[in-house]
Amino acid sequence: MKESFVEGDLVQVIACDGRTLHEALPISGGKHFRKFSYLREKPSKKNKTFDHLSLEGKLGLIVSVVRNKLNQPVRYVLRVAKKDFNCPALNADKYLIKMKNSSDTL
């Protein structure tokens, strides 16, 4: 696995092999509401499709990290534009990059 993220990390959603993360938009008339939206892995497109919204190029903040009993990250709660998303750790490794802080390079 790649580096794991920690709470407070600023990340950017990228495309990898022609795929990226998309927000699953709610289906009209649905009765189920979730605290967090889930991110889906879909082909990369610059425009909005009818049922998914691409997050490619957007910045997000890691709000929390859910770990298993071996202290390995299982999923991350990612905040993008005032909305929280559940992002599985495997998808985070592929589609999220940590933004460098200017003080890190000094």
Compact description:
The chain has 106 residues and is mostly beta strands.
Keywords for this entry:
about 110 residues, mainly beta, eight-stranded mixed sheet, about 45% strand, globular
Describe the structure.
There is one protein chain. The protein is mostly beta strands and 106 residues long. The protein has one domain. The protein has one helix and eight strands; from the N terminus they run E-E-E-E-E-E-E-H-E. Strands 4-2-3-7-6-5-1-8 form an eight-stranded mixed beta sheet. The protein is globular, with a radius of gyration of 14 Å.
Estimate the global geometry from the Cα principal axes.
globular
Percent strand equals: 35-45%
Number of separate strands:
8
Tell me the radius of gyration.
14 Å
Estimate the helix proportion, in percent: under 10%
Uncertain spans, ≥5 residues at pLDDT below 50? 32-36
User: What is the terminal separation in angstroms?
Assistant: 27 Å
Query: Largest beta sheet, briefly?
Result: 8 strands, mixed
- The oligomeric status of these chains comes to single chain
Structural class: mainly beta
Total helix count?
1
Q: How many domain modules? A: 1
> Mean pLDDT across all residues, rounded?
77
Biggest β-sheet: strands ordered side by side in the sheet: 4-2-3-7-6-5-1-8
- H and E string: EEEEEEEHE
